[in-house]
Design goal:
single chain; 190 residues; alpha+beta; seven-stranded mixed β-sheet; three-stranded antiparallel β-sheet; 10 strands
Length: 190
């Protein structure tokens, strides 16, 4: 597992629509059906990554808090489950249930959505405004299984508060980092 940083994207990048299967319900869902008119957080995560495992409970807490303010959270896993079976839909479902994820957790079996978002690592957070224009792209906070930082969601929380209030985000954005997306053989990430 190569330690990887998120791919820089320009602010204003428009969220590509998608149609993916939700791992708990088995339903097909699209971004246009799920998005919020206020703010939508799309996060690329997976089950086996130690960087994600370290913040699973923080993700659940963050989502619960901000859903009550009108923010939609959508998790996507795009890892090759043939090579990394722990990232297959049945294990993603257990991850969602075990961690109290009360938001859609989608599986990108073709990896086309990950490519469209230029996703490179897990975890990686994308915050879009009501028009699905990118306002923040980076980490949740400084916490990692390799340090003693508190998993408080500081970076994404600051960005969420600005978007909710209609204010510009002027703070520097720290890229997401963690395990690289596990691309299928022959699939070029970008």
């Amino acid at each position: 597992m190569a330690y990887t940083f998120s791919t820089p994207l320009p602010m204003g990048f428009v969220a590509p629509d998608f149609e993916l299967t939700e791992v708990v319900s088995g339903e097909t869902m699209t971004l246009n059906e799920l998005k919020s008119d206020l703010a939508t957080v799309i996060l690329f995560i997976c089950n086996h990554c130690p960087y994600v495992r370290h913040i699973n409970s923080g993700i659940a807490k963050l989502a619960k808090e901000y859903q009550s303010k009108g923010v939609v959270f959508i998790a996507i896993s795009a890892n090759d489950a043939d090579v990394f079976p722990d990232d297959g839909p049945e294990f993603l479902k257990q991850q969602a249930l075990n961690n109290g994820f009360n938001f859609p957790y989608l599986y990108d079996s073709t990896q086309q959505v990950a490519k469209a978002y230029k996703a490179a690592c897990t975890p990686d957070f994308y915050l879009f405004d009501g028009q699905l224009a990118l306002q923040y792209h980076g980490r949740m906070d400084a916490a990692s299984h390799k340090n003693n930082e508190i998993n408080d969601g500081k970076d994404i929380r600051n960005a969420l508060e600005k978007v909710i209030k209609g204010q510009p985000i002027v703070e520097p954005q720290t890229p997401g980092s963690g395990c690289n997306i596990k691309w299928k053989a022959g699939v070029s990430p970008f």
